[in-house]
Design goal:
mainly alpha, two-stranded antiparallel sheet, single chain
Length: about 90
């Protein structure tokens, strides 16, 4: 019976990031790559280098940049939540 519980415990520890006493760090490293999306949206000018269409008299360039700032904030929040969940499991 003791061997069975040890095997279950070992599998459980692996699923939460611990293998035989070690804490696996940065399990959701892939979430950091989401930061590339808003950077590419601003760094690649052919996406927004135009005046038309206008929204309320404001050129496309201006409202595109505003939307990218809001999008960047949303991406930052998502990454924070994903990485924060990882920190919560580590404690």
């Amino acid at each position: 019976m003791r061997d069975l519980t040890a095997g279950i415990r070992r599998r459980y520890d692996r699923s939460v990031g611990q293998v035989e006493g070690e804490v696996r760090s940065q399990r959701r490293r892939w979430a950091l790559f989401l930061f590339v999306l808003p950077v590419v949206a601003i760094v690649y000018p052919p996406l927004y280098d135009r005046v038309h269409p206008t929204v309320g008299g404001v050129p496309f360039f201006v409202w595109y940049q505003l939307c990218v700032v809001v999008f960047g904030g949303a991406v930052t929040g998502i990454v924070y939540l994903l990485r924060g969940a990882e920190r919560a499991h580590a404690e």
